Amino acid sequence: MKILIFGFGLIGKKRAETLEKIFRKKKKDILIYDPFFKKHKYTKLSSLSNINFNEFKLIIIAVPHYQQFQIIKLLTNYKNILLIEKPLGKNYVEAMKIFNLLKNNSNNTYVGFNHRFYDGVQKIKYILEKEKDEIISIRINMGHGGSPQDKDSWKKNISLNGGGAIFDPGIHLIDLIRFFLKNQKISLIKKINWKGLWKFGGEEESVLLLKSKKVSIIQLHISLCKWLNEFSININTTKFNIILTGRTGNYGPQIIKVYKRWSWIKNPDKKNVPYFYKKFDEDKSFFNELKSIINKKTHNNCSLRNGLENMKIIDLIYKSK
Questions:
Q1: Class of residue 133 by CB neighbours under 10 A (exposed 0-12, middle 13-18, buried 19+)
Q2: Domain residue ranges of the chain, discontinuous segments joined by +
């Protein structure tokens, strides 16, 4: 199975290494197209001239999102599996153009949102679908501080990155909300932004108050100025309180705790003991996401249409006052 990866930065490399684990095949089956690609164990594709892209059973686009569109224009006749790393383009207008270029292959095209595939997130999804309980509120926090070198990178260049904290990493949180709520329509109630440290033009910390058709209180807190990395999800229902913290690596192990309503009445000596507890030390999200696409068990994957809808919500948040 020949595979082509555009871009060999942090995510491109992660995808290549994950594919090795899935297929256990020779590294020569994974080709890399990246002008900055240096000598490595994978095969370098030096030119795109006279390439029949349909020879590749899987193509992954892992370049910065401001470079996606130029690559996707080459793939309008591609018929196999295509994975585009989030977000879909630099803005909603560009995302619409990408969607229209790829709509004939939309059933094989996915947008990479690996957060859906964290073990703890999958457990939350399972609980919500099994219990079918009314959700009272959802709160998701995510923040990191990056590194001093970021100020000179495209990530802190508003003309290239498409926005601030709301856009990235915020689009991950928008996607998780839609994932948990089965793509319910999301609307903005209020936003509060702060900027002043990085001074690149985009918001550096943001609090968003949202709502959906069935959930009245959804709060997202996103930051590019967190000096202790944070990722947490708190979902309160009429029967449970689900708390998830961490996402492995610098964010700490991922831990999920589920507390039942009034559990301390029957067990007063276990008032603070969760009904369910599990700790995950390994990040399997990239493995699980790619394996589901390759095996065509894609009910949990972000489709091209849903990638576009995520961008639409981001666009509406930015346009609101």
A1: middle
A2: 3-111, 119-282
Cα–Cα distance for residue pair 248/244, rounded to 1 Å: 12
Chain center to CA of 36: 25
**Along the 321 residues of the chain, how does pLDDT read in single tens digits?**
899 999 999 999 999 999 999 987 667 799 999 988 877 789 999 899 999 999 999 999 999 999 999 999 999 999 999 999 999 999 999 999 999 999 999 999 999 999 999 999 999 999 999 998 999 999 999 999 999 999 999 999 999 999 999 999 999 999 999 999 999 999 999 999 999 999 999 999 999 999 999 999 999 999 999 999 999 999 999 999 999 999 999 999 999 999 999 988 888 777 788 999 999 999 999 999 999 999 999 999 999 999 999 999 999 999 997
CATH code of domain 3-111: 3.40.50.720
Distances (CA, A) of 109 to 74, 100, 163, 184: 15, 12, 25, 21
Q: If you ran DSSP here, which 8-state letter would residue 192 be given?
A: E
CATH architecture assigned to 119-282 = 2-Layer Sandwich (3.30)
Tokens of 100: 């229209």
Q: Which amino acid is at 130?
A: K
pTM score of the predicted model: 0.96
The residue written with tokens 């994957």 in the block is: 301
Count of beta carbons in the 10 Å neighbourhood of residue 127:
18
From the list 47, 313, 21, the residue with the least C-alpha distance to 187 is 313
User: Is there a common fold for 3-111 and 119-282?
Assistant: no
**In angstroms, what is the C-alpha Rg of the chain?**
20
In this structure, are residues 275 and 241 in contact, taking their beta carbons and an 8 Å threshold?
no
